[in-house]
Amino acid sequence: MNDAPILEAVNLSQHFEIQTGLIRRETRTVKAVTDLNFDIRPGETLALVGESGCGKTTTTRLLLRLQTPTGGSVRYDGHDINQLSGAALKAYRSRVQAVFQDPWSSINPRVRIQDFVAEPLVVNENLTRGEIDRRVHEAMDAVGLRPQDARKFSHEFSGGQRQRIAIASAIVSRPRLIILDEPVSGLDVSIRSQIINLFKDLQAEYGLSYILVAHDLATTRYLADRVAVMYLGRMIEQGPTDEVFDAPAHPYTQALLSAALSADPNAPRHEIMMNGEVPSPLNPPSGCAFHPRCHRFIGDVCKTLRPRLQHQAPGRCVSCHLHDR
Ligand code: SF4
């Protein structure tokens, strides 16, 4: 099996300038993400975890080439995606797909399901009508929809079925990687597990890779092989899911996981409180950006020196002065 990365983020950064102040105009730099490094290999799931404003959304937009990074690159099979054009760009758009949170907003109510599901094939591939129809029916069947559903409109389906339709559209071009951006957050709790299990089944059947962005840590633990924890635009911990969940190394990860409900309602809870809110990326704290909220704060070194992301074990890294080597 070829284990080379499908996609890599290499020192990926997205900084932009904004004007602030009504009377004295001032140009400030927002560092949405800085120096991200991660990769995703065939058949695996990598989860990006962190509170709102940590840079997950910017990261997924950069991976989908909806924004151009101000530093670093996203590499697909070793090629910078922002250098792709023509057939190579169409191949990228076919092979890297996305499923977003809100299945209602992503489906045009005046378009028949068949045409919605077929869109990636029509835009990115050169197929006959018959081949497109065959691939659409194959994708609908794979997500548990009936062939006769193809002629219907989105308002004729429930929220869970709409998400199945969105997934059919994501797999119709036989992608290698799907970015799942809060894929079950908009669904009733009762059908979330069906959709999560569908992702598992599709991964087993087609060897798909996923990059998962989810607030729900139970979903993350169930689906992800590896977890990358982000705080204020930087990666602060990365490792195999079980290792990170069972023994989080970074104080932020410890606090984040401690707030999540255990699957066992009788398990003792030791929630670690974080002080205050996530700081503004316009005015990040000095040194370790987490220091004003950290329950393990160890003094001036935390205030003045930004910790480097350091390897602790194979596949495991953390940026915190408690783990300096
Ligand atoms: Fe906390 Fe210091 Fe580690 Fe930052 S470097 S997470 S402030 S202990």
Shape: globular
Number of helices: 10
List the ions, cofactors and other small molecules found in this model.
Answer: iron/sulfur cluster
Give the H and E element order: EEEHEEHEHHHEHEHEEHHHEE
Number of strands: 12
Give Rg in angstroms.
Answer: 21 Å
Sheet with the most strands? 8 strands, mixed
How is the largest sheet built, in terms of strand order?
6-7-8-3-9-10-12-11
Key attributes of the depicted protein:
325 residues, alpha/beta, eight-stranded mixed beta sheet, 10 helices, 12 strands, 31% helix, binds iron/sulfur cluster
Q: How would you describe this protein?
A:
- This protein has 325 residues and is α/β, with parallel strands linked by helices.
- 31% of the residues lie in helices and 23% in strands.
- It has helices at 56-63, 86-95, 113-124, 129-142, 159-171, 189-206, 217-223, 241-246, 251-258, 300-304; strands at 7-20, 26-40, 45-49, 71-76, 79-80, 96-99, 177-181, 209-213, 226-231, 234-240, 310-313, 316-318.
- The strands form two sheets. The protein has an eight-stranded mixed beta sheet, with helices on both faces. A four-stranded antiparallel beta sheet has the order 2-1-4-5.
- Strand 9 and strand 10 form a beta hairpin.
- Helix 3 (113-124) crosses helix 4 (129-142) and helix 4 packs across helix 5 (159-171).
- The radius of gyration is 21 Å and the shape is globular.
- The two termini are 35 Å apart.
- The mean pLDDT is 92.
- Bound molecules: iron/sulfur cluster.
